[in-house]
Amino acid sequence: MKIFLTGANGFIGGAVAATMISAGHQVRGLVRDQAKAAAVSLHGIEPVIGSLDDAELLRAEASRSDGVVNTASSDHRGAVEALIAGLSGSAKPFLHTSGSSIVGDEAMGEPSEQIFYEDTPIRPEPEKEARVAIDRLVLDASGIRSVVLCNSMIYGNALGVTAESVQIPALVRQARSSGVARHIGRGLNRWSNVHIADVAALYLLALEKASAGTFLYVESGEEALGEIVRAIAARLELGTAKSWTADAAMAHWGRELAVFALGSNSRVRGKIALEQYGWQPARKSITEWIAKEMV
Question: Minimal CA–CA distance to 270: which of 210, 208, 213, 192?
Fold first, then answer.
């Protein structure tokens, strides 16, 4: 298939592109400038220079492709609308990337027993309502084979790109710069997680097998943020991990990252990929990866 992929030089996009190319697909990848175009070309991606604000470009690329994968942004509604317009009535696949912070709470380090399955209704916090609305826009799009992949905390080293994920690098940068690894509050909040290689493998399976209107949680394990931070402290040889107050965490990381990425609970379970697509994630322990492979 000839795939148009946004975010080709990103952490998820680069890994997904590499996996799809290895499977025999051709990938045209959206990048912002010539330097990024040259970088992705080295990995077999045909670059398309532009941005998510270039609606006409997105419509044209979607229309001439055999399928579209949006990994550049979960929150750019205009880009999603343009891609859907370009695919309208074609029955072609459209894979859209979301994130499991849509079910995140404001626990700031406290635990929660709430677990979300793929058919569990979502009542997002106000900051996440727009993202959930975009997910629904994709799922309800008629005339295309629309799929939303809702990724949990991603870890691992990306395939062929220098970009990085969000949560683990943020925790590591803070620990290295201060000499103290920190979790928010008691660190009892839990996040589901998944390795980047397993994420990319599921995107390929979804491209080939998913039916229209499919919503997938992408996860293969779960861990408390306190345990993750303690593993980081041990890996970096920084001694005992310590707690941070909510105010201190928000002052350092900002509200979005502190509240919804590092202080919240986001406990999800994805059954469709395992039971219907034969997805077999190879990695299931984020703390083991931190201890043995994190750089």
Answer: 192
Query: Which of 145, 100, 31 minimizes the C-alpha distance to 260?
Result: 100
Residues 169, 160: Cα–Cα separation, whole Å: 18
Cα–Cα distances (Å) from 253 to 20, 193, 240, in that order, read 34, 20, 21
Q: How many Å apart are CA 219 and CA 273, to the nearest integer? A: 10
DSSP codes, 136-161? HHHHH-TTSEEEEEEE-EEES--SS-
| C-alpha pair distances (Å), 132 with each of 105, 126, 139, 256, 291 | 14, 10, 11, 16, 34
Give the type of residue at 173. R
Q: Which two tokens stand for residue 263?
A: 């202080």
Structural domains in the chain plus CATH codes = 2-159+189-223+262-292 (3.40.50.720)
User: Exposed (0-12), middle (13-18) or buried (19+): which is 117, by Cβ within 10 Å?
Assistant: exposed
Q: In the chain, what is the straight-line distance between the N-terminal and C-terminal CA atoms, in Å?
A: 35
Nearest in space to 39 (alpha carbons), one of 201, 163, 157: 163
What is the 3-state composition of the chain as percent helix, strand, coil, each rounded to the nearest 5?
Answer: 40, 20, 35
Q: Give dist(CA 212, CA 51) in Å, integer.
A: 27
What tens digit of pLDDT does each residue of 179-231 get? 999 999 999 999 999 999 999 999 999 999 999 999 999 999 999 999 999 99
Segment 113-157, tens digit of pLDDT: 999 999 999 999 999 999 999 999 999 999 999 999 999 999 998
| Overall pTM > 0.90 | yes
